[in-house]
Specification:
The structure is a single chain. The chain has about 180 residues and is mostly helical. It is built from eleven helices and no strands. Helices cover about 60% and strands about 0% of the residues. It is globular.
Length: about 180
């Protein structure tokens, strides 16, 4: 998404995401869950649509608190499907609820969702996609790849001449800590 470095700066919605979130590591499980959910919601739509509705998603899904979302039932699904401020897609909503439950299982085994992700690293994108398809609902190649790039586990978020690249390099995200050939497989 290197073109993003050209179009995002200065944009009302893309700019802040590009400069403060995209490619920066996340270790908070609820924030990781939020990012995964937003990527799921984006499927088939523009990222701008998701960024414009981000605050609505956060409110509708109780701040993406994993424990709260995992406990959602039929009334919550109906509430979400009636919420014009979000993407009202039953398959995506059901996937998000089920993924919260699956992340709880990973938390019980690995201590956190972040630990589970870290334990899987490094992998080429194709292996990540297989793992995510096996582990979660509604996570194909694009969703998995964008999620992992956005949290610092796969390269490709910023060009090396983008000022944000230098900020991310100072943090030394997981993808920068391994031989780049790993990602070519």
């Amino acid at each position: 998404m290197n073109w993003y470095c050209d179009v995002a700066p200065g944009h009302e919605f893309h700019g802040p995401y590009h400069e403060n979130e995209y490619g920066f590591p996340i270790d908070d499980d609820n924030k990781l869950f939020e990012r995964l959910c937003l990527e799921i919601m984006q499927a088939g739509l523009s990222w701008l649509t998701i960024l414009k509705k981000k605050d609505n998603f956060i409110k509708a899904f109780d701040g993406f608190n994993l424990d709260i979302v995992a406990a959602y039932g039929d009334d919550d699904i109906t509430r979400l499907l009636d919420d014009a401020g979000i993407i009202r897609n039953k398959l995506k909503i059901n996937a998000i609820i089920e993924n919260a439950r699956r992340i709880q299982t990973l938390q019980a085994e690995y201590g956190s969702f972040a630990n589970w992700i870290a334990k899987q690293h490094p992998k080429p994108k194709s292996d990540w996609v297989k793992l995510f398809k096996k582990t979660f609902k509604f996570t194909g190649g694009e969703i998995t790849g964008e999620f992992l790039m956005s949290i610092g586990y796969l390269p490709g978020t910023h060009r090396t001449d983008c000022p944000v690249y230098d900020e991310i390099a100072k943090i030394n995200p997981p993808w920068m800590q391994v031989d780049p050939m790993v990602y070519e497989a």
